[in-house]
Amino acid sequence: MCVGWDDLGDLGQYQSDTELKDTFDRHYPGSSGGSLTTARRLLAFRDLETGDRIVANRGMDEVLATGTVTRSYQFLPDRPEYQHVVSVTWDLSHAQKLSKPQHGWRSTFAKVDPALFARLAAQGSSLTVGAAPTQSGTSVALPEDVQAVLDALERKGQVILHGPPGTGKTRLALGAALALAGRGDVLDDSEPGRRAEAQAEVLRGDGVRLVTFHPSYGYEDFVEGFKPDLTAQGPGLTLTLADGLFHKLCSRASTHPDLTFLLIIDEINRGDLPRIFGELITLLELDKRNLPVDLPVSKRSFSVPPNVRIIGTMNTADRSISHLDAAVRRRFAFLSVGPDPDAVSGTVGPLDLAAFFESLNTRITRHLDADHQIGHAYLLRDGEPIATEEDLAAAFHHEVIPLLEDYCLGRADLLHSILGGLVDADTGRPLLMSPQDLADALATEFTSGTQGPDA
């Protein structure tokens, strides 16, 4: 497997994607498609390892072969062209026409969904084993991000997934829940309905609970407190002691020490964490599990079992990690969940979607900060990159623009710095245009080598 861009020289000399991008810009000035995106894909090509699996395609709906890397990247300057080489053993028996086009395959390089690869290689080929048992007793490979969450839970006991809106933090948390429940087989399933059914089944069971924190959520909801007794007879209000969500989960976990119990807290930073957790924040540390404390309301003895895990999700556009209580920060591992350009690999008319996505987020980072980037979910439809001008226009005008206007509230100059020529200079409002014209305008503004209005 070989690619061009020979003027870049040995890709092994580059220590970062930005260093490669700078060289790319010097040798190929004005190149459309986003040189940073190309740089990152070239480094992914360079870093392929022996045993990695490859699909060779023609267009968006034909597979020529699947392959296995047998020797990692080499730069061969004696070749007349295509001097960047990775050795691959090809299996031509998997050549086939696909039932529907893969829009992300318009790029030179694109990630292949593991479930799709499994179907392509189903004719007599076996995939590498992974780490999570399925219900049938076999094993499947877990996605890297899910495995990273499980590793953090094993190491720390609780983890917060943080990042800009639309990066899939809640989806990742639920993916970890599926893996812990032995349903890792649905994580890479191409049918969203099958995963959704598995998630609903897991949440209906006793081992996983999902809650969303908000400003009025308190200790009495989470641990214990006196609540109105709706079954009480007679006049007046009767209060009874009620266990909160976390108290109930810990009680079940203590009676089943051989199972793992998981609490997912969505929007964890929107709650008053010291008030919600109270004295239990100390008991979250793994070396303090099973340590008894007397609860201040009921005076009952309580402890957090060692088989309880917590995953929180945090939108950094609302509040950064630094604003969290120091005691909370010390007891949680933090995993960043950032925008993934590969998730939106594809084209819409003349627009390279991944290049536009990266260029837009680069400007947002420059003029706001990295916490206010947009997530790849804004450019997905049914889990796939948007593929039509109409879907692009709907996502841009109805989701991306309102979000940016909120970020730039009262700062028309800031919005212009991010969107450039797509903002009316007189009114400071984004331009309205047809879906076809919008795709052309976005390609010109974001992927034609321009750096923004203030570059």
Task: Report a brief summary of the structure.
Helix 1 packs across helix 2, helix 2 crosses helix 11 and helix 4 packs across helix 5.
Q: What's the helix and strand layout?
A:
Layout: E1 2-3, H1 17-27, H2 35-46, E2 53-58, E3 62-75, E4 84-91, E5 96-97, H3 114-120, E6 132-133, E7 139-140, H4 144-156, E8 158-163, H5 169-180, H6 192-204, E9 208-212, H7 219-222, E10 224-228, E11 239-243, H8 245-255, E12 261-266, H9 273-277, E13 293-294, E14 301-302, E15 308-315, H10 326-331, E16 333-336, E17 347-348, E18 351-352, H11 353-367, E19 380-381, E20 384-385, H12 389-407, H13 412-419, H14 435-446
Parallel strand pairs: 8-15, 8-16, 9-12, 12-15
Antiparallel strand pairs: 1-4, 2-3, 3-4, 3-5, 6-7, 10-11, 13-14, 17-18, 19-20
Helix pairs in contact: 1-2, 2-11, 4-5, 11-13, 12-14
> How does the helix and strand content classify structurally?
alpha+beta
Uncertain runs: 124-139, 450-455
Gyration radius (Cα, Å) is 26 Å
Strand content: 15-25%
Let me know the average pLDDT: 86
- DSSP helix fraction: 25-40%
Beginning-to-end CA distance, first to last residue: 37 Å
Number of strands: 20
Q: Largest sheet, described in full?
A: 5 strands, antiparallel
Shape: globular
How many helices in DSSP terms?
14
